[in-house]
Amino acid sequence: MESLAPEDPEKIGPYRVRARLGAGGMGRVYLAETPAGRRLAVKVIRAEHAADPRFRARFAREVEAARRVNDFYTAPVVDADPDAAAPWMATAYVPGPSLRALVEREGALPPERVRELGAGLAEGLAAIHACGLVHRDLKPGNIIVAEDGPRIIDFGIARALDASAMTATGAVIGTLAYMSPEQVEADEVGPPSDVFSLGGVLVYAATGRGPFDASSPGAIVHRVVGREPDLDGVDPFLADVLARCLTKDPAGRPTPAQVLADLRIAAHDPVPSAPPSSPPVPSPATAPPAPGPASSGPTHSPPAGPALEHPAPQHPSPAHPAPAHPGSVHPAPAEVGSGYAAVAVPPQGPPVTVPPQARPGADQARVRRRAVLA
User: Fold this and answer.
1) Where is this region: Disordered (predicted)?
2) Of 25, 39, 238, 316, which is least surrounded by CB within 10 A?
3) Please, which pLDDT band fits residue 334 given cuts at 50, 70 and 90?
4) Does residue 284 carry a pLDDT above 70?
């Protein structure tokens, strides 16, 4: 928040301006108050965009559509005047830092906090898409981390810009790192583009950097379009989910609902983030009896190395499966059970790798996560 400058307006519509909240390629955001003293965030569009009749028409349609979005996930639209000399829109003021400001101040967020953030953003995107909107500018600076969860702000305005305006000097420099390949290339942009941006935002939250960061806009575009995302430092559970969000092909990305489901599974999965140093020892209840005279001897724990003095059991290993995971750990035993069956040791021969496409949805994500951890 900054003090007002001499060139700033004293009033916007009926609202008295109190301070600057921020600025972007399309305009400036002010803290304002109603006559009764209620706080608002008022966005005023820059003159070069206000002079474009097509922009005004699209901006008016987006304002009306934005009113339909559930304010639980966004800053609700309170008032707007797309026909003013400088078009403006007023939303409820949501106290809290932007995600960018939070990470700059505190550093990368821990995995559990990134999962909570991702779940809230996925719900918000689902609500926005259900209203027929595509955000097109989801980035750390457009997310307010409020006490009751993240709020997505500034949606709809970016959609009002056509391709020529999006390539204007200074219009997209700050958001290139979170744009989808199809948006960078000015192709058809739909809800999957927002999912790509969501993946980039969560990489930033988890590491303090974007997945395609580079020293110049041209280098960023090259990485977004042709390079794999940099997921170094991302928790293994999260890395699988985010890699799918950042798939180049829009058809290969999950929906926000699928992202939410995968994040919930990651939050409840009891498997550690690193594999154990040695295989688990079977419990006495399931371990096969030692053959021959040794079975009548005193009970003892299996040695750490190979038991050369004991012959191998003479019955097939499938008669003694690995101990099952306790069902109480998982909220959905049936679904989780099928996921564990996919990676169980087969009756004969070497281990079989189950291809990711064999398990759609949450089971597919679980199989890939366990493959990463193996």
Assistant:
1) 268-374
2) 316
3) very low
4) no
How far CA 187 is from CA of 85, 181, 200, 250, 358, in Å, comes to 32, 8, 19, 11, 31
The answer for residues whose C-beta is within 8 angstroms of residue 15's C-beta and 6 or more apart is: 32, 33, 34, 40, 42, 79, 90
CA 288 – CA 108 distance, rounded (Å): 48
- CATH 3.50.50.60, applies to 1-93: no
What does the alpha-carbon distance between residue 114 and residue 266 come to, in Å, rounded to a whole number?
11
Q: Residue type for 58, please?
A: R
Catalytic residue among 79, 81, 83, 137: 137
Residue 52 a catalytic site member: no
For CATH 3.30.200.20, the residue range(s) in the chain are 1-93
Q: Buried b / exposed e across 7-33, counting CB within 10 Å, b at 16+?
A: eebeebbebbbbebbbebbbbbbbbbe
Residue 43, annotated as binding a ligand: yes
pLDDT tens string 92-117? 999 999 999 999 999 999 999 999 99
Pairing of β 143-146 and β 77-81 = unpaired
CATH number of 95-160+167-268: 1.10.510.10
- Which residues sit opposite 42 in a β-bridge? 30, 90
Q: What is the pLDDT of residue 175?
A: 78
Helix, strand or coil for residue 287?
coil
